[in-house]
Amino acid sequence: MRTRRQLILLVLKNSLMNQQARTAATLPAPPTPSSLFFFSSSRRPTTIQYTRSRSYSSNITMSGSGSGSANPDLDSLFQQKRILRTKVKKDLKSMPSSQKSQEDTAIQNLVLESSWFKSSKRLCAYISCTPLREVETSQILEQILSHPPKDQDNHTEIEKKLYVPRVEDKNCHMRMFNISSIHDLIANSMNILEPAPEDSDGNQREDVMQASDPVDLFLLPGLAFDKSGRRLGRGGGYYDTFLLKYQALASERQWKQPLLVALSYSRQILDEGIIPMTPHDVLVDALVTSSGVIPISKTALERM
Q: CA distances (Å), 28 to each of 58, 146, 277, in order?
């Protein structure tokens, strides 16, 4: 299996051969204004204006959050990311527990009440980890795994199929397995809950990459985001690498691309241009904050 460094170098080499290479430090094309709808917790949409740094077609990329590249400009960007991660982690650590709890509840309620979540049949979601200070997903997972799921008016919703992540090794290799109960999760060596590859009866769990039907929605974690879809991960490259593979699979099978939605605390939303971008970072389609849903890509504007 290729390491992340080999994948990065391969993509750069292919880009040069196609005469489409850009330097890693090159910023996106000049932004153009986009008019989006901001859905607040009161469900009353208002129009907001901001600029997008990339077209949606740039969303299909490869992870490049590691280091050790032969390109010094790329190494410089990786160093900038490491510095920014340290700052964001410090800021999250100082976040009052009362504010965190309030935002956790508001974000999860926005997801659960949204039409795009209710209509999803198959989705991938992360298992929130308190020490990592990720936005909570416990209420979302609980509703998905209820049989059959109910909305707040006790109406039966579409039954959903849930896949959650399992880290396989330190080389960006992550898989998404189907679970049917919260009891299907076990703590790994880092005390993070993950699905075992086999269920209690010894049967292999379904891997989303071998599923016969497409995923509608990904609920993603991250350290920081901006309103053009940039996402700063924790440096392992697991999600960027996995999303690239799944997007390639969806294209190969002529499936509709899944909606990539990141959950974010208010202090994780950074100003435009602060998050460094390598040529291999995957943009998100939308953000959900305690204030509302921010659609970003064309896909999000059409489906949210």
A: 10, 43, 9
Residue 42 has pLDDT above 60, yes or no: no
Q: Note the pLDDT of residue 14.
A: 43
Long-range contacts of 145-151 (CB under 8 A, 24+ apart): 145/179, 145/180, 145/181, 145/182, 151/112, 151/118
HEC profile of 120-189:
CCEEEECCCCHHHCCCCCHHHHHHHHCCCCECCCCCECCCCEEEEEEECCCCCCEEEEEECCHHHEEECC
Phi and psi at 50, nearest 5°, equal -155, 175
Q: Give CA angle at 53 (52, 54), nearest 5°.
A: 100
Q: Which residues contact 4 (CB under 8 A, 6 or more apart)?
A: 63, 64, 65, 66, 171, 172, 237, 241
Q: Would you say the C-alpha torsion 62, 194, 133, 86 has a positive or negative sign?
A: negative
Taking the C-alpha atoms of residue 187 and residue 227, their distance in angstroms, rounded to an integer, is: 34
